[in-house]
Every structure is written in structure tokens, then in C-alpha cells.
Amino acid sequence: MANRTLTADIIAAEAITILDNELVMAKRVFRGYEDDFSKKVNGYKVGETISIRKPTDFTVRDGAVMNVQDVTEGKTTITVDKRKGIDFKFTSQDLTLNIAELSERVIKPAMVQLANQVDTDVMALYADVPNWVGTPGQVVNSYADFAKAPERLDEYAVPSERSAVLSPQDHWGLLGSQTSLYIQDAAKGAYRKGSLGEIGGVDTYMSQNVPTHTTGSRSGSPLIDISITASTITYDQVKDTNQQTIHIDTLGGATQTIAAGDVFTIDGVYAVNPVTKAPLPFLKEFTVVEGATAVGSETDLVISPAMIWTGAFKNVDVQGVTDLNNQPVNFLGDASKNYRQNLVFHRNAFALVTVPLVSPPGAVDVARKSYKGLNVRVIPVYDGVNDESAWRLDILYGTKAIDPRLATRLSGTGS
């Protein structure tokens, strides 16, 4: 049977199927927001945005007297601002090959690279996650280490259907501990296939794209250097950003840095159960949103979440003081160190949106394919002098940490 000449439509269909198969992290996050973009026949351009409402919260009334509460809804946005692509060249002879042969030689390697880029961009959202369990720098090498993550999510009333994405080192450290368990099928899968599967109700995967966070050069004994009380910020003021600016001083040097994604606690500021608002037995963790450099051993920090002391959106329980001024700030991990950022999360913590790119005026034989929410565009450009076709494959997408409360970073404990 004669081979048919491959077209942009055939190549696009093959490429998008392989792309979906190669994704790891990107397949575990929320993908429903594509439906919120208007259905444009000619596709989308870089920078288009949708708004998403954040869930509201309430307090429980005590007794028969009615206590009407305002419905306060925050909102956030997702912008499709990441345009990535792979370009390759085929001869006319290549285009007469069987699609399976061309796929193995050219399309699959290209899609592996593109899938890694999408996964990397989704995993970069770790910096928005304030929760971090374990000891930074320690390898996850026991079930007890791993269990710290779902335990923390349980404390925060995070729903089930959770996933974990571990670095190769942590994956193999945990895998080794599982083979000694007297669970015949689980141990067999771990030992023979290198697969961890579901552990403690968490669907667990390995990815070499787990990012590494480099902490700032901060040292000294930093303190809060601003008055922060119960009346400093209301949820209504920060409902869209969930960010707060604080000031710290007594850093160890005039030009020391605090890196975006650094995590810290404040003495006396405890976490709370998001449903009952009762204090939890550990300090609330915060993440630095924007990197900062100290001037005169002090600096402003934009942090998340904002500290809400009272009401339906209360997220901290402050004990021992009524003003956080001069309270010690404790950063996780050593200064200027690299730490892998394993993530354990509910799918609604993060979102990925892919939309079809515009079909540009003047381009011929444009192919756009959609598959399981993914969208790719393929355009061939023919070089008649050399009888070659240059092919460009593009995707357009956006990522967002929608509700970082539903995720935690994970390190081992060293025990």
C-alpha cells in the first residue's frame, strides 16, 4: 500500500496526542477554565485574560438570633501569556513516510521537549505555595516523611483526590522504603516497575522537572518592624490579591536578599482550621511574593497570604501579643541554598489553560487541533529552492496558582 503525503492536519493530530501523553504535572491540575474563554473562531492572541471568582467563607451563628453576613467574593485572573513552540524541517521525501515512522524520528522528541516546558511552567507555581513540611534539604525516604504532606493537607481541610510530584531523588528514596513493606502487589510494582502509584490516598508521580528553589542570602535575626494588629487588614481589602506588605529589620547586612518563594513563620502567629477557625498546633507559614534587597539591613516584603485575624476569613491565631511589631521572623532553610520543591496538592490548587492560536492572515494549510483541552497549531512554510518544508508548531497557554492553600511543598525529615 502506497504511503500518502503527510499534511499539516495529520502532523498536528499526531503531535497533540503525543504531547498529552508526555505531560506529568500539567495533567494533574485543574483544566476547566478553557470553557470560560469566549469561543473565538479565529483563535487567541498572547495576553488575553479571564477573571475567576474565589470561594467565599462564613462563620456559624450561635443561637436563634439571625446574623446576616455579607457575601464577600474575591477574584483572580488567568492570562494566556506563554507562547511556546518547536520548529523542524522535512524534505518532500520525509513527507511520504508513514506517520508512525516520522512520529518516532521527529515528532515525539519534539513533543517531549514541549511537554517538559509546560510541566516546568506549571511546577514554577510552587513559589506561590506558603505551606512547606519537612526539613529543607532532606530527602523523602520513608512513608513517615511522605505522610507529612497529606497530614498537613488534612489539617487544612483540603479535599481528597490529591496528587504528588516528586523529584527523581525523592521518588527513588521513597520507592526504596516501600519495597520492604509486606504489601505484595505494592512492593512488586515499586521494585520491578519503579512505580509508586497511590500512597496514603495520594496519586504519586516522578518528574525531573521538579524545580529547585534558591533561597535569599538573608541572615541575622530579622524582626517585624511595623505595627500589625487585628485591625491592620480586612479580607475585603485583600480579597483579590491575598497579599500584604510587611517590613522587617535587623537583617545581617545592608544588601542581603530575600528571594521570591522563600517561606517563613512569625513567632506567636499560629495556623487555624479553615472551617472551625480553631488554632492548629503549628505556626502559620507565609511565602514571599516579590524578591527584595535590604537597604540598611531592613526591607519591605510582599507576602502571601495576608494575615486575617478575625471573622469568616480568619487564617491566623495570634498568641501572646496584640501587636506583631518586634516579633521574630524565621525563614525555612539555610541562606543561599538550593532546595528541590516536591509538591503535594489538590487539583484545584493550580490551573492550566491552553487555547487555540489565531490562524494568521496569509498563511495557507494552517492546522489547529484540540485534544483533552490541549490546543496546537501547525503551519508549514515551503522552500521551493531546496524542496524542503519548515514546520512551526505553536501552543498558547497560561498558568495560575488559584488556591495555594490546597497544596504543600514537601521535604524529608532526616530521620
Architecture overview:
The protein is of the alpha+beta class. It has 3 domains: 8-55 and 76-125 and 351-397, no CATH class; 130-213 and 340-347, hypothetical protein PF0899 fold (2-Layer Sandwich), CATH 3.30.2320; 216-334, Elongation Factor Tu (Ef-tu), domain 3 (Beta Barrel). The chain has 6 helices and 26 strands. It has a 6-stranded mixed sheet. A 6-stranded antiparallel sheet has the order 9-10-17-15-12-19, with no helix packed on it. Helix 1 (8-22) packs across helix 2 (99-123). The longest helix is centred in the first third of the chain and has 25 residues, at 99-123. The radius of gyration is 25 Å and the shape is elongated.
C-alpha end-to-end distance: 63 Å
Major β-sheet profile? 6 strands, mixed
Please count the helical segments. 6
Poorly predicted tracts of residues: 190-194
DSSP summary, beta strand count: 26
Radius of gyration: 25 Å
Helix content: 10-25%
The total number of structural domains is 3
Structural class: alpha+beta
